[in-house]
Amino acid sequence: MMNIEVVNLSFIFSEGIKGLLTLGIIGVVFSVILIILNEKLKVKEDPLVEEILKVLPGVDCGACGFPSCKMYGLQIIKERKLNSFCKVGGREVTEKIANILNIKVTPESSFKMVAVVRCGAEIGEKKVSTIYRGPKSCRFAHLVGGNIDCKYGCLGLGDCVDVCPVGAISIKKGKAEVDIKKCIGCGRCIEVCPRNLLTLVPVLVKEQQEEKLSVYYVACNNKEKALYVKNVCSRGCLGCGICTRTKNSPFYLQENLAYLDYKRKADSKLLEEIRNKCPTKCIERNES
Length: 288
Prior knowledge:
This protein is an alpha+beta fold.
């Protein structure tokens, strides 16, 4: 005859409850210990950080050279110096931070940097001998030779538009255009352009406070000789040097291409006079 062992279910249940209670008590004890240790070991944050973060826009665009507004604020507090300034907040935010820290605003903080596109040719002004069929990306198009004959010109497929954190860039008539009032000078557009067409140029904040931004630049990046330029674009720089021959001109020639020296002071009247002399109208004025 088989022996049947009767299992005491009530004993197992009570032992299980005891085990769960023991684990629960251990968990609570460890939680309390961790909370106490956290409070004791926690590094107290400088109250100035909170004040500065309230002033900063919180966009975390990286235009100041730091990955976040908090990192930027911590560095300023550490150095007690404003070597770079918040390009989103501009002069107003810079002065507020300076007041919080009781420090002076450096001369560099008086400038706003904006992006300009060194190609001003629209559809119809750029020669097109082939049709590009592929992903809508300047990088892809550039790899296969592009969708225009000029190997220096704007492909107009909008890689710069996609990376702009403030929507300051748009594609109009086959070329990239920058709204300099929106532009924060973060430089992300510069990094993605495969033809290095975008560059940052300075604008005085004094002009911004008058709610009238204006910047002049050479809208061409073609370093070839005039004959090649004429064959691929009707708006390209011919390297003729007319812009350099006006008295006190801030323009100069390098590798068949005109450049504007922003370190040399020039008023808008002189710049406008030179712009009107350009035979291909490749010197542009961007204003907002």
